[in-house]
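Below is how a single chain appears once it has passed through the pipeline. First comes the sequence as given, then the structure the pipeline wrote out for it. We keep one example in the README because the format questions we get most often are answered faster by looking than by reading.
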Amino acid sequence: MIRVLLAEDQAMLRGALAALLGMESDIEVVGAAADGEAAWRELQRLKPDLLVTDIEMPGLTGIELAQRIQRHELPVKVVIVTTFARSGFLRRALDAGVSGYLLKDAPAEQLADALRKVHRGGRAIDPQLALEAWGEADPLNDRERQALRLAGEGLSANEIAAQLNLSHGTVRNYLSEAIGKLGVGNRIEAYRLARQKGWL
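Resulting structure:
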């Protein structure tokens, strides 16, 4: 049996994925989590073979979750199922050791086949995205990305500094570096462009 943990913040979709995978004779959904931190706790408790996760989730994103799994060298393979058909997301996912990257509008039977392939040690990447992924490289580092994401959520430099445990000046430097690298006029334009490219 392939033991799967689901991490998806939308309850209806989480239930649909669990029901869909539950119909497969060789796949067992051992747990489900509504956010990244809960998924991290369940990973350690349940020790599944595969984690099927969305990218955008409260707490930790799917990519941040994959990075944490990679850092801690957990023996679980990660498959991302997302609406984000952006090459920037795929590149970051691959850098984080993700084995599968599928789009939510793909046919349902592709998911079970992809999980089997990943479980056997292969990769399952949406082919169109795989071609695009080797286009433009992401110029942002992790700290610039974190600061820019929070700025895009409307936080001030002081609030970002408090959240990231950094000084106000350091946050301003990260934001101005990101603005410079993206060649835009301000942090909101930088946030919009980085999101559009899939770099946030």
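The mean pLDDT is 91.

See the next section for the split statistics.
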